[in-house]
Amino acid sequence: MKILVTGGCGYIGSHTCVELLESGYEVVIVDNLSNSKEDVIDKIKTITGKKVKLYKEDVCNYTAMDKIFEKEKVDAVIHFAGYKAVGESVSKPLMYYRNNLDSTLTLLEVMTKHNCKKIAFSSSATVYGKPKKLPILEDFPLSTTNPYGPTKLMIEMILKDLYTSDNEWSIAILRYFNPIGAHKSGLLGEDPNGIPNNLMPYIVKVANKELKELSIFGNDYNTKDGTGVRDYIHVVDLAKGHIKAIEKVMKDKGVDTYNLGTGKGYSVLEIVNTFQKVNNVKVPYKIVDRRPGDIDACYASTKKAKELLNWKAELEIDEMCKDSYNFVKKNK
């Protein structure tokens, strides 16, 4: 069975490709390498002993995508490709709307043409906006607090409308919470181009003395220590969630939404302190102003994914912090 993975050289995409290959799937990646590196392909092969085909193309390019689908005869798609930094989306909203919506519309049009109607979509917990209570259930009201969020929410709406128009589609919408960690081998991990936007890659660069100190955005939130609380999930657990989602879309028609998280909330300071403890390193930090669009706390109810996908996160915060630093130490 052949799965096309858009953005498959990226952080979550590459880990998912490993899990797909190790589960016996054939994998084709489409990635324009705008925020990833081509050597990931060799690393995936080293880990799995299996080859993966890479097309260096932009998913927004209809002609290129049409040719790929014509050649590869894809059975299903996992759609990761898209810009993902909350802060950057606030300063560059048009770039986010253009890229994230165009790429998805192009992909779905090409899939329709080639009668490939099975997809798992990489959405985000940001579509819940500022939740009125916790943990967050999939049927909570949806709203957003930054431009990145509406791009995910609009795509969810597009997918639901697509199924309404054609009940042959099978769609899993996966709302991620906060992926961190890295593959145990140390070969794959989060390695963004430029200065990181997300917490863990910034922490590891400070621990590795590539950056002077960590900026913690706000310590006056309504949380146990004043810093923002999030549901952090190991990227390997998250990747395994995609395998379960693909199994579901291959078996059942319909459209459904699943939270992928641990169901636990950790504050920024808890992450920093755990990282320092398990890795025996110092992470200097300073408190700065809040970022636009950030909320106090956010963590998932994972009951639905457990019941309908037979999936739950297994790895704890200590392993997330250890594996993140192991990746950086092995890739200095």
Note down, in words, how this protein is organized.
The protein is of the alpha/beta class. It has a domain at 2-181 and 233-261 and 302-314: NAD(P)-binding Rossmann-like Domain (Rossmann fold), CATH 3.40.50. The protein contains eleven helices and 14 strands. Strands 3-2-1-4-5-6-11 form a seven-stranded parallel beta sheet, with helices on both faces. Strands 12-9-14 form a three-stranded mixed beta sheet. Helix 1 (11-22) crosses helix 8 (235-251). The model has no long low-confidence stretch (mean pLDDT 95).
Give the helix/strand layout.
Blueprint: E1 2-6, H1 11-22, E2 26-30, H2 40-48, E3 53-55, H3 62-72, E4 76-79, H4 86-91, H5 93-113, E5 118-124, H6 148-165, E6 170-176, E7 178-180, H7 199-207, E8 214-217, E9 229-230, E10 232-234, H8 235-251, E11 254-260, E12 266-267, H9 268-279, E13 285-288, E14 297-298, H10 303-309, H11 317-330
Parallel strand pairs: 1-2, 1-4, 2-3, 4-5, 5-6, 6-11, 7-10, 8-13, 9-14
Antiparallel strand pairs: 9-12
Helix pairs in contact: 1-2, 1-8, 3-5, 5-6, 7-9, 7-11, 9-11
